[in-house]
Design brief:
122 residues; mainly beta; 7 strands
Length: 122
């Protein structure tokens, strides 16, 4: 089974408006000025976990949404290849400062699972 995976410290969060069953292999795009995007994206770092793998804190680095504390994502492109047991994703993100972030993932999505606890405060 191999050694346990260390907890992540940085994450690229990709949220699709489509349901999981609607996703197919192909290219998906995000543009800040588009009326409808295929997905939304957020980059976080400095992730901290407690002993139960519950995410207790993180820092938002970049997002497609307007925020005073973060870098704005102008454009992003994902190329997804869905296979029966694995997933491959290549991405290219361009920020408002014209910096480009490229990355990829290939494998099983359950290599590291953590819990996010959210609550409503009234």
């Amino acid at each position: 089974m191999g050694l346990p995976q260390p907890p992540p410290s940085t994450e690229v969060q990709i949220s699709f408006a489509k349901g999981k069953s609607e996703l197919k292999s192909g290219v998906y795009k995000y543009a800040k000025d588009a009326e409808n995007n295929d997905f939304y994206i957020t980059l976080i770092n400095r992730m901290r976990f407690d002993v139960n793998n519950i995410l207790t804190s993180y820092n938002t680095v970049a997002t497609g949404f307007v925020s005073d504390e973060t870098i704005r994502i102008d454009n992003a492109q994902l190329e997804i290849e869905l296979k029966p047991l694995t997933l491959s994703v290549n991405y290219l993100i361009e920020t408002d400062g014209k910096k480009k972030i490229a990355g990829s993932f290939s494998g099983l999505l359950k290599n590291y699972t953590y819990n996010i606890c959210e609550s409503d405060c009234d």
